Amino acid sequence: MLYISIQFRNIELKNRWVMSPMCMYSCENGVANDFHFVHYGSRAQGGTGLIMVEATGVEPRGRITNHCMGIWNDEQAEALKKIVDFVHTRSESKIGIQLAHAGRKGSTWNNLQIPVEEGWETVAPSPVPYHPSERIPHVLSIEEIREQVQNFKEAAKRAIKAGFDVIEIHGAHGYLIHQFLSPLSNIRTDEYGGSFENRIRFLLEIVKAVNEELDENTALFVRISGTEYADNGWNIHDSVELAKILKEHAVDLVDVSSGGNIHGAKISVFNGYQVPFSSQIRRETGVKTGAVGLITKVEQAEDILQKGEADLIFVAREILRNPYIAVQGSFEMKENCFFPHQYTRAKISS
Ligand SMILES: Cc1cc2nc3c(=O)[nH]c(=O)nc-3n(C[C@H](O)[C@H](O)[C@H](O)COP(=O)(O)O)c2cc1C
After folding, report:
1. Is residue 236 part of a domain?
2. What is the pLDDT of residues 209-236, one digit of tens each?
3. Which of 101, 173, 178, 229 is catalytic?
4. Residue 309 placed within a domain
5. Segments forming the whole domain that contains residue 67
6. Catalytic annotation, pick one of 175, 192, 229, 324
């Protein structure tokens, strides 16, 4: 199934391999450069069905570090367009972008918070830092929450102008949207906190605002943490309920990761450790899902699809090691996959 195409709105992916979004911390002022051109371009040469550009800040405070990617201005969008155009003209891959806001996990370097003078005052739903040693984040007022929704909408508009095929909203890993979802990081008492309905409101408002910008030529994915591995925290049942609602709101795929919101949470990591969350969400809601997390082998990826545990396979570290995993898999499985015509002589090993 890895090489059976799949459609999201009018976007057809030639195969089920996705380059998972990965921060490269290599921008100045949020602008993509030659490194990113080669980095993403080589995964297009490698036949990857969908390339997801790393977490990209919808405003300066939405970045994790000073060197993260941004899409809050036209210069940033123009730099990304160069990559998108290459992917569209030189490969059969599609390309998406992950729109993100780091919230209380911003203003860091090497996973440590940096001083306000070198970074910025972080924002969050509640005055609860990620780690007790960190600064208390600024609590977003209702008006500021609306501004954040607008930031995602404007970012989506720029992404469409740059030609992206897919927009993924980053609702996972303890970043701003996840901070709203979890009762452990969101202790608000207004309409954005308390009940499940209130905690998911921020994400749903973003989904609605972004969808207003999209037509059938751009698909919408949402990445969530299936669980945050904490008592009384966000869990897989919440994720199933959320996925049902996202499906009703025209979200095309839920990309299922886990963790990231609770410092020191115990996570048992093994091959395909997050696949069961994707599987449960897919089974219980009928929404299309993406599986991610220690998927490193072609057979393993094929098996996940065959068992109906996911519709797409997101690969992060393995595709850094092997940008050609999609092509390599097609050779192993004797399937068709894009391969640069310049490389045709390498199709047969003898
Ligand atoms: C260098 C690096 C940067 C990452 N940056 C992001 C990111 O920008 N957005 C995101 O949702 N996940 C990010 N992740 C998580 C990956 O997308 C993926 O979910 C995780 O690494 C598990 O997949 P793997 O076992 O295939 O590496 C990052 C992972 C790595 C290794």
Report:
1. yes
2. 999 999 999 999 999 999 999 999 999 9
3. 173
4. yes
5. 6-347
6. 175
